[in-house]
Design goal:
Blueprint: E1 2-7, H1 11-26, E2 30-31, E3 40-45, H2 50-62, H3 64-69, E4 74-79, H4 80-85, H5 87-92, E5 98-100, H6 108-115, E6 120-122, E7 142-146, E8 148-149, H7 160-164, E9 168-169, H8 172-184, E10 189-193, H9 215-224, E11 231-235, H10 244-252, E12 259-261, H11 269-274, H12 281-294, E13 299-306, H13 313-326, E14 330-335, H14 353-376, E15 382-390, E16 398-402, E17 407-410, E18 421-429, E19 434-438
Parallel strand pairs: 1-2, 1-3, 3-4, 4-5, 5-6, 7-10, 10-11, 12-13, 13-14, 17-19
Antiparallel strand pairs: 8-9, 15-16, 15-18, 16-17, 18-19
Helix pairs in contact: 9-10, 13-14
The structure holds 5'-deoxyadenosine and iron/sulfur cluster.
C-alpha cells in the first residue's frame, strides 16, 4: 500500500515520522507522492500548544472527503496529540481508523493492518519505547538521531513529559553504530535530538551532572571521531547541564557546531520559578559566559514564552533585556498556551491574547534588528558552509549553512554538490540570510 505521513511539530516528530516510514517500507509498503495518492495516511501530531492541535484536527476533518472517495483508505493519528486524547479522537473524527501514541512507532506495520479491519486506539505507555528508534530512510546529507526519549523535567507549562513519558537514553554503542551507518550511506551532518540532550546517559536523574562528568560529552567525542562526518549539531540542551566537561568537549570536538540552542523561556526569576525552570537569569548568564569564554565564535538561539500566567510588564521587560543582552542569532517566541494536564493549566491564563501578541511582536522586532546587524557585519568575511543544494526560493542559486547557523546563498560552479564543505566570500546581507561567491 502507498503511505503518506504528514508531520506537525518538532524535529523529534520529523524523526519519528522517518522511523515510521522506514518501518512501513521495510514491511513492503511504498511511499505515496501526495495525500490524494495514499492508501495509508498518517498524521503525526503535536500537543505543545493548542494551536498545533487545532491545526492538525482541522486538517484531519478536511480529509474526510478523501475517505468518501476511497473507502479503503486507512487514516491514522500518531504522536503527541494521539497520546494525549486517545480514543476521544475516534469519537470526534469518525473517519479516522486508528490513534496510536508516542511509544508504539515500531508496531506501525501491525497497527496499520489491524486498523484496516477494525477501528482502534492504542496509547499505553510501551515498555519498549526505544525499539525502532534506529530506523532510517536511505541516504541524505543531513540526518537526525534521537538519543533520548521523553522528559523528566516537568516545566509547569509543558505537556511533553505527559505525552512522551519518562526520559530514557539509548545505548551509546547503538547511537555510534547508527551514525557510522548513516555516514557510510552519505550523511555529512547529524543532528542529535532529545527533549534535554545534555541529560543523555544520566539515568533520568533530574540533577545536572557534577563537575567533570557528562555522558553527553563522551557521546559527542565518540561521534566526533567518525571519519567522513563533517558536522554534529544537537537540540535542545537544558542550560544548567553545561558544565566544564561539556563545554570543553564542545570546544575541542572539531565537528560539533558552534551554534547552541539554549531555551531561556523567561528572563524574570519569578516567572522562571513559576515555570519550574531550575535556574535564575543570573545562572543562565553565567553559563552563557562560560560557553563564550571557551568558544568565542559561538552563536546562541533560544525559545521564549510570552504571556505566562501573571507575567507583568516588568517581567516581560526583563525577558526582553536579557534577550538583547545575550544577542541571540535566532529565537523562537511562543505565546503561552495552557495545556490541560500540565501544572500551569491550574493558573489563570491572565495575560490577554492582544498583550501576548504585542509582546511577541516586540521580541520579533528586536530579533529582526539584531539579526540584520549581525548579518551585515559579516559582509566581506570568508565563511565555510556545508552545501545543502539548490535554494528553495531561487533555482539559480544554491545554499549552504555555516557552522554557526547562518544560511548563505551563492551561484554554483561546475563542481558544487550537496554535502561538500566550501568557502564563500560574503558579498551581501539579506534580512535573514547571506549572499556570497564560491571560492575555489
Ligand atoms: N505554551 C507556549 N509555548 C510552549 N512551549 C512548551 N509548552 C508551551 C506552552 N504550553 C514552548 C517552549 C519550548 C518550545 C518547544 O515550546 O518554549 O521550549
Ligand atoms: Fe517541556 Fe521542560 Fe521537558 Fe523541555 S525540558 S520538554 S520545556 S518539560
Amino acid at each position: 500500500m502507498r503511505v503518506y505521513i504528514k508531520t506537525y511539530g518538532c524535529q523529534m516528530n520529523e524523526r519519528d515520522s522517518e522511523a515510521m516510514m522506514a518501518k512501513l517500507l521495510a514491511a513492503g509498503h511504498t511511499k505515496a507522492t501526495s495525500e490524494e495518492d495514499a492508501d495509508i495516511l498518517i498524521f503525526n501530531t503535536c500537543s505543545v500548544r493548542d494551536a498545533a492541535e487545532r491545526k492538525a484536527k482541522g486538517k484531519i476533518s478536511h480529509i474526510r472527503k478523501l475517505k468518501q472517495r476511497n473507502p479503503n483508505l486507512v487514516i491514522g493519528i500518531a504522536g503527541c496529540m494521539a497520546q494525549r486524547l486517545g480514543e476521544k479522537l475516534l469519537d470526534e473524527l469518525p473517519h479516522v481508523d486508528f490513534v496510536v501514541g508516542t511509544g508504539q512507532l515500531h508496531r506501525m506495520p501491525e497497527i496499520v493492518m489491524e486498523a484496516s479491519s477494525k477501528r482502534m486506539a492504542e496509547t499505553l505507555e510501551s515498555k519498549d519505547v526505544l525499539t525502532g528508534m534506529g530506523e532510517h530512510l536511505p541516504g541524505g546529507v543531513f540526518g537526525q538521531i534521537a538519543i533520548t526519549r521523553g522528559c523528566n523535567r516537568f516545566c509547569s507549562y509543558c505537556i511533553v513529559p505527559y505525552v512522551r513519558g519518562r526520559e530514557i537514553s539509548r545505548d551509546r554503542e547503538d547511537i555510534v553504530r547508527e551514525a557510522k551507518e548513516m555516514v557510510d550511506a552519505g550523511t555529512r551532518e547529524i543532528l542529535l535530538l532529545g527533549q534535554n540532550v545534555a541529560a543523555y546517559g544520566l539515568g533520568g536523574d533530574i540533577r545536572p551532572p557534577r563537575p567533570g562528568y557528562s555522558p553527553f560529552a563522551d557521546l559527542l567525542e565518540d561521534l566526533d571521531s567518525i571519519d567522513g562526518l563533517e558536522r554534529i549539531r544537537f537540540t535542545s540542551p537544558y542550560v544548567t547541564y553545561f558544565n566544564d566537561r561539556l563545554v570543553e568537549a564542545i570546544s575541542k570536538c572539531s565537528k560539533v557546531c558552534h551554534c547552541i540552542h539554549l531555551p531561556l523561556q523567561s528572563g524574570s526569576d519569578r516567572v522562571l520559578r513559576e515555570m519550574n525552570r531550575q535556574y535564575t537569569a543570573d545562572i543562565y548568564r553565567e553559563h552563557v559566559a562560560a560557553i563564550r569564554r571557551a568558544i568565542p565564535d559561538v552563536t546562541f538561539s533560544t525559545d521564549v514564552i510570552v504571556g505566562f500566567p501573571g507575567e507583568t510588564d516588568e517581567d516581560f521587560a526583563m525577558t526582553r533585556d536579557l534577550m538583547n543582552e545575550i544577542g541571540y542569532s535566532q529565537s523562537y517566541i511562543f505565546k503561552y498556551s495552557p495545556r490541560p494536564g500540565a501544572k500551569s493549566a491550574a493558573l489563570e491564563d491572565s495575560v490577554p491574547e492582544e498583550l501576548k501578541e504585542q509582546r511577541n511582536q516586540i521580541l520579533l522586532g528586536d530579533l529582526a534588528e539584531r539579526v540584520a546587524g549581525m548579518l551585515s557585519s559579516m559582509v566581506g568575511d570568508t565563511v565555510e558552509v556545508l552545501v545543502e543544494g539548490v535554494s528553495a526560493r531561487n533555482a539559480e542559486r544554491w545554499s549552504g549553512r555555516t557552522g554557526t547557523g547562518y544560511m548563505v546563498h551563492f551561484l554554483p560552479d561546475g563542481d558544487v554538490a550537496p554535502g561538500q564543505i566550501r568557502h564563500i566570500k560574503v558579498t551581501r546581507a539579506g534580512a535573514v540570510s547571506l549572499f556570497g561567491e564560491l571560492l575555489k
